[in-house]
């Protein structure tokens, strides 16, 4: 299969008010394949005028359009229909995601695409069981609590999993009864521009879903500041998240932020080293470390320290970097998204060396000229990393592992909690009481015990603690509560 046959020759268009349109400026941008840094497609570049049009369309569809007046059953059926359309086009989406983000095609096809379809099915069901509650009221009044849609939601996405994450978030937004303006990352816009075709074909009313590309400082910023947008959800880096907290203040807008992480992975000495080495490897090399919940700080019991590190090195050296379509050649390690991002990661590697961490492997570019065309950074392992080092404290968002030894349970927890982040974490131990105690004490919103990575992202989403985010997780992130008091007495009057 030639993947380029699935790429449109003309620029991918914005989707506003039920129409595929060029940007007002007519400007386009090249879409780059990070495996060789060559352009393979183009897309219209949105700006403030475009996003304003999209916001008005979403506002109209929510306030006056059919969407908010539809029954949950009707909305659910539309989501199911869209999921079926996506299933039909799954190879196209997996191909585009592989080309644009440098992913492994098999993972894009058999994991991310399947999880994306599942999001349509799950949220189609969820749309029909959004329940409130009745609160016992001593005064004899009836009190009930409703969850209602926020209204117009701006969804700002990162580049590291735009297809799956975009589907999961947009389906939740729609199931809750909102309308949406999606702002994908400029590094990865195509999957959301394409998903607009799915919603269009399924028959979603105009304005319910809108997709506008463009710079975060313009298009994203407008979504945050515009008073016609009721709620903004952003997934991305902590610095941009902090900026959004500031720019949302004038409208006191509801915001939800899913931000960076530096997740601890604690391994006790009562485990099977050969098995757990595989989890440690997977935890920091999956998608070349470009996963928010990556286990990038391995906190390793001193009694197995050198043995574990030696075996981890052997396993990581077996990884085969390359083009994600070359699965038959065994490629299982991907590129970073861009030259700029790879350069940031190299700077952290230099910093790790200069601050005195011990390089176990990696830390130098690959020799292969084919790989030099892309943005590959080999799995890089630093041992003896102390908490005062930059590489211990800051999110690198690449395949860089920092290993720190510990002796006692208390010390492991203290090291785990010694950064500003609180996104995720893991603990490996055969002693289940101890493992659960540690899970309880890691300050983070998503913890894995004797495994790594979430097994139910939409059913059981994690909340970012500390500087890893704000806002509740799950569909209620896109809803707002209302409490209603009902007087059931005939002729009651206020107290004198
Ligand atoms: P980023 O913060 O650079 O960008 C995220 C999005 O915000 C992009 O669409 C960008 O255009 C937009 N943006 C930038 N400036 C803006 C502004 N002033 N106003 C509004 N929007 C603006 O992040 P990234 O590099 O695309 O993604 C990587 C980061 O995302 C990592 O830190 C990673 O940990 C994080 N992430 C977090 C989660 C999570 O669930 N917590 C999931 C995936 C990724």
Count of separate structural domains:
2
The helical percent reads 25-40%
In which order are the strands of the major sheet placed?
A: 14-15-16-13-12-18-19
| Rg, Å, rounded | 24 Å
Described by strand count, sense and barrel closure, the largest sheet is:
7 strands, mixed
Approximate shape: globular
- The CATH architecture of the largest domain comes to 3-Layer(aba) Sandwich
Strand coverage percent: 15-25%
Please identify the structural class as seen in this structure. alpha/beta
Provide the list of bound ligands, each named once.
nicotinamide-adenine-dinucleotide
Measured between the Cα atoms of the first and last residue, the distance is: 81 Å
Kindly report the name of the CATH homologous superfamily of the largest domain: Aldehyde Dehydrogenase, Chain A, domain 1
Brief digest:
37% of the residues lie in helices and 20% in strands. By secondary structure, the protein is an alpha/beta fold.
What this model shows, in words?
With 496 residues, the chain is an alpha/beta fold. It has two domains: 3-259 and 471-482, Aldehyde Dehydrogenase, Chain A, domain 1 (3-Layer(aba) Sandwich); 264-457, Aldehyde Dehydrogenase, Chain A, domain 2, CATH 3.40.309. 37% of the residues lie in helices and 20% in strands. It has 15 helices and 22 strands. It has helices at residues 48-63, 72-88, 90-101, 105-126, 162-175, 190-202, 216-225, 238-247, 273-285, 305-317, 339-354, 369-372, 390-393, 409-416, 432-441; strands at residues 14-16, 19-21, 28-33, 38-44, 133-135, 142-149, 152-156, 179-183, 209-211, 231-235, 254-258, 264-267, 297-301, 358-361, 380-383, 400-406, 421-422, 425-428, 447-449, 465-466, 469-470, 479-486. A seven-stranded mixed sheet has the order 14-15-16-13-12-18-19, sandwiched between helices. The protein has a six-stranded mixed sheet with strand order 9-8-7-10-11-21, with helices on both faces. Helix 6 (190-202) links the parallel strand 8 and strand 9. The termini are far apart. The mean pLDDT is 97. The structure holds nicotinamide-adenine-dinucleotide (NAD). Residues 156-160, 183, 185-186, 216-217, 220-221, 224, 234-237, 240, 243-244, 258-261, 292, 395, 397, 423, 464, 469 line the site of nicotinamide-adenine-dinucleotide.
């Amino acid at each position: 299969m030639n993947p380029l046959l699935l790429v449109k020759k003309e620029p991918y268009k914005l989707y506003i008010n039920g129409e595929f349109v060029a940007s007002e400026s007519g400007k386009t941008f090249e879409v780059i394949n990070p495996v060789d840094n060559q352009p393979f497609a183009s897309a219209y570049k949105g700006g403030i005028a475009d996003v304003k049009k999209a916001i008005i369309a979403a506002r109209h569809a929510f306030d006056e359009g059919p969407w908010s007046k539809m029954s949950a059953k009707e909305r659910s059926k539309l989501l199911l229909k869209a999921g079926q359309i996506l299933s039909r086009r799954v190879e196209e989406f997996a191909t585009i995601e592989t080309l644009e983000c440098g992913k492994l095609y098999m993972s894009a096809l058999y994991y991310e695409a399947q999880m994306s379809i599942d999001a349509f099915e799950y949220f189609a069901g969820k749309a029909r069981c959004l329940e409130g509650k009745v609160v016992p009221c001593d005064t004899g009044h009836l009190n009930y609590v409703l969850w209602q849609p926020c209204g117009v939601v701006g969804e700002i996405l990162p580049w590291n999993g735009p297809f799956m994450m975009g589907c999961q978030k947009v389906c939740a937004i729609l199931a809750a009864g909102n309308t949406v303006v999606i702002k994908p990352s400029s590094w990865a816009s195509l999957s959301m521009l394409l998903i607009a075709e799915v919603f269009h074909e399924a028959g979603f009313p105009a304005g319910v879903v809108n997709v506008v590309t463009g710079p975060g400082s313009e298009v994203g910023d407008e979504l945050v500041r515009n008073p016609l947008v009721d709620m903004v959800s952003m997934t991305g880096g902590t610095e941009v998240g902090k900026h959004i907290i500031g720019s949302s203040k004038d409208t006191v807008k509801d915001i939800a932020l899913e931000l960076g992480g530096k997740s601890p992975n604690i391994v006790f000495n009562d485990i099977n080293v050969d098995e757990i080495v595989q989890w440690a490897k997977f935890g920091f090399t999956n998608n070349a470390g470009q996963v928010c919940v990556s286990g990038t700080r391995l906190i390793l019991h001193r009694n197995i320290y050198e043995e574990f590190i030696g075996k981890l090195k052997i396993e990581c050296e077996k990884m085969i970097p390359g083009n994600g379509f070359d699965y038959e050649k065994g490629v299982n390690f991907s590129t970073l998204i861009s030259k700029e991002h790879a350069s940031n990661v190299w700077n952290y590697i230099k910093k790790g060396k200069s601050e005195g961490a011990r390089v176990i492997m990696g830390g130098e570019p690959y020799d292969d000229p084919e790989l030099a065309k892309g943005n590959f950074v080999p799995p890089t392992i630093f041992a003896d990393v102390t908490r005062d080092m930059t590489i211990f404290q800051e999110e690198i968002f690449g395949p860089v592992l920092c290993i720190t030894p510990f002796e006692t349970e208390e010390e492991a927890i203290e090291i785990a909690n010694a950064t500003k982040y609180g996104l995720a974490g893991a603990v490996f131990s055969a002693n289940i009481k101890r493992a659960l105690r540690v899970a309880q004490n890691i300050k983070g919103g998503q913890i894995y015990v004797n495994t790594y990575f979430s097994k139910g992202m939409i059913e059981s989403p994690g909340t970012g603690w500390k500087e890893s985010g704000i806002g509740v997780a799950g569909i209620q992130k896109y809803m707002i509560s209302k409490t209603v008091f009902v007087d059931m007495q005939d002729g009651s009057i206020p107290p004198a």
